[in-house]
Amino acid sequence: MNLYVKIVTLVLLCTVIGCDAQDSWEKIQSDGELVVVTRNSPTTYYLDKNGPTGFEYALTRLLAEEMGVALKIETASNLNDLFAQLKDQKADIAAAGLTLTEGRAARYPHTIAYNQLTPQVIYVAGTFRPRSVSDLTTMNIAVVAKSSHADTLYTLQQNQAPELRWQEIDEADTMHLLELLKLGQADIAIVDSNEFAVQQSLYPRQKVAFDLHEEQDMVWYLAPEIDNTRLTIFINAYLERLKNNGTMARLREQHFGHTDGVSRISAHVFTQNMRQTLPLYRRLIRQVAKEYQMDWHLLAAIAYQESRWDPNATSPTGVRGMMMLTKPTARELGVENRLDVTQSLRGGARYLKDLKRRLPKRLQEPDRTWMALAAYNIGLGHLEDARVITQRQGGNPDLWQDVMQRLPLLQDSKYYEKTRYGYARGKEAVTLVQNIRHYYNILAWQDIPDNQPIPPLRSEDYIPNEIDNLQLQTF
Description:
The protein is α/β, with parallel strands linked by helices. The chain folds into three domains: 3-114 and 217-259, Periplasmic binding protein-like II (D-Maltodextrin-Binding Protein, domain 2, 3-Layer(aba) Sandwich), CATH 3.40.190; 119-214, 3-Layer(aba) Sandwich (D-Maltodextrin-Binding Protein, domain 2); 264-474, Orthogonal Bundle (Lysozyme). Helices cover 51% and strands 13% of the residues. The protein has 23 helices and twelve strands. Helix 16 (367-378) packs across helix 17 (380-392) and helix 17 crosses helix 18 (400-406). The longest helix has 21 residues, at 426-446. It is globular and about 70 Å long. The termini are far apart.
């Protein structure tokens, strides 16, 4: 009997044995909904043009489906509010990228760990870089109020560095801290590694100075002063199953995988181009994307990766135009002038759509799009070779996360000599896809107010001033 079956059996036993007082499991089933309190941020929960999304939202949505109830999301403006909602039993679970601390565990029941993160010291490149806690004693430090980072600083102050001082910001999102750094209103910010990885591209001058603490567990907290036995057993079994069957890893890759591979310099250049160059072509890109029924953010991200939105771009190998089409590809797509922006964008959009159509029908989104983008770079034949290698090595050839790990093997003779199409620059294809994913996410985030005019998301809380200003220039 596997762990999941054992724990579900325990849940059923608890149900049979029962008790007079209503527990949290029975309350949720009776209400027909699971109420989750979280933060409105790119790493947890936010609304885009397609509706709710985010890592924590994805996990809790699947949990609600497992429980056979509806999911109701509540947002908190700060950590005090978040835990107050939990304490007052206005929410069943707090799922907000929260670390496990002794103080919280003493007051609130919690699940097993479902992820790990590291608190990091963030500074601005070109200013003094601290390398240890002792270097922080003379610096203006910003942390989120009532956070585990504030607890860590307090412990360091008591045991190691009594001169340590900091300001606690009553905001639930670390983006506010990064804004303070950008504006020079703080020297240092303490931010979790996953959140900084997602948001660094919006603040390309900011870097990690050092890790403030070792890796910490992320958990969900449950409402206190109610029997959580059955609910905790069920959630722990659910999280274990997601870890064991690969779902957890796939969700992490889907929501955070795009942060890999883009350098700080590249992110800075992208931010500049997004402000200065994109407005010249934004309307046209939107128009072409609408013609081909695709997300304009994706088309814009591909065009940026290919040419930096330069309609006259030319490579040493002869590919030209904003979408960098080869002569044979352009001819096949009916593109007469590769340097004509409209023709180039239409040709690139048509080519991507054709590649997606030719992939096996069983491939699901978003993996289908990432695979097509890899084929855009190296061709369907080489992509299929990588998928064959993936299957031979026990991976899933239908998941981008697995295939991207094998694509670089097409540059190793030990592997490519046994493939149908031979050598290919597989590592380059991986870099291209990851870059496009990263640019796509930045473009989509900065466009959220245009597609989502209702609460809870407020652009002034979510988007830095430089991106917000871009919207005013281009809409």
